[in-house]
Amino acid sequence: MATRLTDADRMAYWLFWQCYNLSIDTAACRSLCGTDLPRPVRAMLPLLDALGITRRKGDTIGLTVRGAYLFHLVEKKYTQTYLRPMWEACLTEPWPDRVVL
User: Fold this and answer.
1) Is residue 45 within 8 Å of residue 54, measured between CB atoms?
2) Helical H runs in the chain?
3) For 67, phi and psi rounded to 5 degrees?
4) pTM of the complete model
5) pLDDT (tens digit, 9 = 90+) per residue, 57-74?
C-alpha cells in the first residue's frame, strides 16, 4: 500500500516525526523541504512558547516536558483513529482493496 504526498503532506509528516526527537531544526526544514515552516506554524510559535509547550533556541524549536506530553496525546489519538483501522484491515486481509478511516 502506498500514497502520494503533496509538498505540504511531506512537510507535515517530517514535522510530526521531528517531534519524536523533541525538537525541530528550522534550518534542516529549509534544507530538506526547500522552504521555512508554514506561516500558520510560525504564527503559533509565540503562543506555544508562552504556554510552555516549546522553547526556541537559535534555529531549534524544542518541546518542553509539557510539549512532549501534549504531543504524546496527539500521537496516541492519531494512532487510534487512523493507524489502528489500517493495521486491523491488513491483519484480516494482507492486501485490502480499500481501507476506510
Assistant:
1) yes
2) 7-18, 26-33, 39-50, 65-78, 84-92
3) -65, -40
4) 0.72
5) 999 999 999 999 999 999
CATH number of 7-92: 1.10.10
Tell me the three cell numbers of residue 62: 524544542
Name all contacts of 67-70 with Cβ < 8 Å and 24+ positions apart: 67/22, 68/19, 68/22
Q: Report how far Cα 74 is from the mean position of its chain's Cα atoms.
A: 9
The strands making up 23-25's β-sheet, listed across from edge to edge, are 23-25, 60-63, 54-57
CB of 62 closer than 8 Å to CB of 56:
yes
Name the residue ranges covered by the structural domains of the chain: 7-92
Locate 30 and state its grid cell. 529549509
Backbone angles phi, psi at 54, to 5 degrees: -130, 165
Q: Rounded to an integer, what distance in angstroms lies between the CA atom of residue 30 and that of residue 99?
A: 34
